[in-house]
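Thread: adenosine-5'-triphosphate complex, take 2
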Amino acid sequence: MTTAEHLDLLDERRARHPLAVKGLSKSYGEGSTAVRVLEDLDVRVEPNEIVCIVGPSGVGKTTLLRCLAGLLAPTTGAVMFGPTTMTGPILEVGVVFQDYSRSLLPWMRTRENVSFPLQGKGMRKAARRALADQCLNAVGLPDAGRKYPWQLSGGMQQRAAIARALAYQSEVLLMDEPFASVDAQTRFDLEDLVLHLRKRLGISVVVVTHDIDEAVYLADRVVVLSGHPAHVVDVVEVPFGQDRDQIQTKAEPAFTEARARILGRIRR
Amino acid sequence: MTIAEKLYPPSVAPNPKKPSGRRRVRSRKRIGLAAWQLGTALLIAAVWTLVYESGLLSRELVPPLWDVAREFVTLAGTAAFWAALATTVSNALTGLAAGIVVGVPFGLLLGISQAAYRSAQFLIELGRSFPVIALLPVMVLVLGATSQMEIVVVFSGVLWPILVQTIYGARRIDPVIADTVRGYRIPPLLRFVKVVLPNAAPFAATGVRIAASASILIAIGVEVLSLTPGMGGNLARAQTDGAPALALAYVVYAGLVGLAMNKILWTVEGRALAWNRRATRSEP
Ligand SMILES: Nc1ncnc2c1ncn2[C@@H]1O[C@H](COP(=O)(O)OP(=O)(O)OP(=O)(O)O)[C@@H](O)[C@H]1O
Ligand SMILES: [Mg+2]
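Output below.
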């Protein structure tokens, strides 16, 4: 069976609710030493959409993603999932962290890493195992379940982290520079995996990246952050639909155009 | 310096990932290491003999190396020696076991509860820097020069490294793992069993290894100072009887016991926490 066929075995989970931040500001520290990192952001992720967040290093991309995940409380403004205000992490939103090698627990085999969040959800052991294996298959890691994370390559670890988020059955997947430290070929494969997951499962995806090519290739919309404190300087719509191709899509004039526009925005 | 202070190397935490070495390179390194160690031993023997021959130090204090070696071999043939060794080791291990039974659970508790940690912090600081040996006269007065007394002193010395290491291990959770656990909404009990415990285990094991070497040291120290039966008692008696070679043979045995204990624990730990040894590539 191919990876794509394995993916077809997973339940569809059409995202139904938008994830949005409204008037979000975030400061670190308190009182006179407080530093404002994000200023009055409005970002909205529609169901089944891929949104990429780009910006220079240190601008506050991770901060925004952690707010979206409910891991960080906004200083002002709100994070909304559908009609409800988020006050902490929720089931419907899963995260793949920037530092995947540290987010997989080294004392658990890969399968258990994928399945143990399901134990917290009260799922039975047999069902957990089956779902974990399905998700590992779906990300192209059929034989990794019995291995420890540190026995896997960087790309494989990142796939395992994606499998864990998939198994959790979130509607929205948040990814912080997910492919920053893998080689180019693996990176392309993983980008295509994300596109495929979106199409097949109907999930929404937010990808933080500093690679503009990657942002344009993946996104339906690219949100450009810049400044101190950071605000949204541009939102670029990308018109390529759900099916994309590493060579053809990147050769289209619209691709080059979007790329140039974003680059100009960040430089300024 | 107190014994307790000696017990705390500033950093005994498992290191972050290091690139793996090739097996062949490692075995060559090991041979090189053995050569160095042999060289060091020979050098010490040579210096020793030189000092003895030159008469720089009183010959009453520094017996010829050969005499020590002879006593070392003779001792191994006497039942009394083995009985003394058994007494010392069993007292040390009993104290160590008590230290583990008390130190690990309390360490976990103090590690996960900020409030408990804050209220116990002063006591721990006091306990870990308190010179246990200073308690000895009082202990001898209360309990006599007995095995029980020895065990109590060993316990009060080894408790601290185990406790402090376990607390550290339970508190020091990688921020990315903490985020993961929170993001996936892992409930507290599951978090404790699947995250806090395994995270603390290598630290606690390091504490136990430090404590194990210390337990032998403390046991022998107590025996030497209070003439409690055991290797240390015999050692002290040999010293006062004017048999420095015999005393030194005991010292060598004491060192070997400590070494063996450390090796055994290192092996057990390697089996039980294979993931940690492999994930962090630590060497003994
Ligand atoms: N916990 C914190 N306490 C104080 N300041 C912080 C904290 N975390 C981040 N910052 C500051 O907030 C700013 C934004 O950090 P953030 O990690 O969100 O940037 P980023 O855009 O993700 O950068 P990168 O591309 O390098 O990952 C930085 O200036 C950083 O120094
Ligand atoms: Mg970041």
